[in-house]
């Protein structure tokens, strides 16, 4: 007896990457916050605590780092279904 090749019911839908949405939003917010903090503190004559001195030493590279987080958010958006 030949079997029917017709599907017997609806296929289960594949659930997308559940982590991509929260990762996208988190990455975008970190990047935005990084850049805002840089602009607010830029030109200020404040004494950074020793554990934050690296942030001041990065100078304009802080913009690159912040934009990197934002570009990563676009990468996560491509994984989001």
Main sheet: strands, sense, barrel:
none
Distance between the termini: 41 Å
| Low-pLDDT regions | none
- Quaternary structure: single chain
Structural class: mainly alpha
Indicate the radius of gyration in whole angstroms: 23 Å
Roughly what fraction of the amino acids lie in strands? under 5%
Overall body shape: rod-shaped
Q: Helical element count?
A: 3
Could you give the count of β-strands? 0
Order of helices and strands: HHH
* Helical content class: 55-70%
Mean pLDDT across all amino acids: 85
Explained architecture:
There is one protein chain. The chain has helices spanning 20-41, 53-58, 61-79. It is an all-alpha fold and 81 residues long. Helix 1 (20-41) runs antiparallel to helix 3.
Summarize the structure.
With 81 residues, this protein is mainly α.
Provide key terms for this protein.
81 residues; mainly alpha; 58% helix; single chain
Topology:
Elements: H1 20-41, H2 53-58, H3 61-79
